[in-house]
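Fold this sequence, please.
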Amino acid sequence: MGRKPGYLILSMGLSAAVIVSGCKGGGGGEPKKDSDAAGTGSQEAVTLTFFTAQNSVYADESGFENEIGQYIKKKFPNVTIQHIHRGKGQDYADLIAAGTIPDIVLEASSNIVSKVKEFDLASDMSDLVKKYNFDLSRLDEAAVAQVRNADPEGRLYGSPFTLSNIVMFYNKDLFDKFGVPYPKDGMTWDEIYELAKKMTRTVDGTGYKGFSAHPGVMMAYNQLSLTPLDLKENKAAVGTEEWKRLVENFKRFYDIPGNEYTSVDDFPKGQTAIAVHVAEKVTSWYNANKDLKFDLASPPSFKELPGTGMQPNTYSLFITKGSRYKDQAFQIIQYLLSDEVQSELSRQGIVTPLKSKAVRDLYGQSLLQLKGKNTGAVYYSKNAPPPAPRQSGLVYYAVNTGKIFDNIYKGGMDLNTSLRSVEEEANLAIQQLLTQKGEKK
């Protein structure tokens, strides 16, 4: 979803030149401490190896340089960057088996448990936060909570780097065509449902849809802060009344005659009035149809949770337990989260985790397609908090909640049967994981 950077591994090691120089020198002087190696005033060379996800925004050097590499080079001129693209034989397990223990991992916060913790890389950054006076209050509370809630004890394994906030797109041409007022910030799901009914119609043989969304995104980052996993037991928890209510909220849109369940990525084709998805679609949808006249509004909210958006889709930086260069790694993270760097990323349409109004106001200023658009919609709503942390020792399984809708609209199931099917499938997978670990039910 969204930019999908997946993960990025930063592995630090002293260059051969440094090793040689450390063995030479008159008087047998001590080499500089590791904590100085990445400092701007140090002359000691350090090689940083970045390992990035396939098919991600960092999959080629230009994307990597644009968002990360250039800033490290600017701030840390003694650092040499080696960028490795993820491929066959180059994954978490492969690197660890080869003894390449990463220092920093850039990973979606939703994968902290399944990746960072699974491979025993998680390390509490709290001491470094204190040591370098890093102000966590500068960051979006929900995004920080996503990272912290991955640990039942509240240890802070990483820090948000960029977000993927969810917004509402609308086709201005269609609203003009049908004489219906544009959507606006702060609307509720009930209000958008009424709009969707008005905008769903067939004119001169052409069908127009009133609403579309990505069900996986809507479920995974839901505004009700529901988790698909039980917080205290090794089982799924999507068969609840709360989950039923959440699904029903979206199902009613697809039950509007003519507003069938299709891909939200059809929005650029020009026959969908409203689409709810991640903010990064301002680029890919624009590239798909540069003539599309669209604008943005905040995501609809539940009437009992006014002004509450979705949970953020957060990409975070983690310093690993095995790193010998935790201080240097943290200095780099601290700089990447500076107002200076985040302002540049914000201009490019990358959602910042900073709460700074000055940085947020720069959002999308470098993007032609956002000129004159309501870019404030990206930050209009307060991000919903993530679910509470699960009890320690429970296995993790990524429940495919998006399948709830596939079961209904592609498999012909009713809502209750679909929820039960997804839950049973997840429970079976969880039991298989427990069996592999040699644990009882």
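Residues 12-41 have pLDDT under 50 and may be disordered. The chain is about 35% helix and 15% strand.
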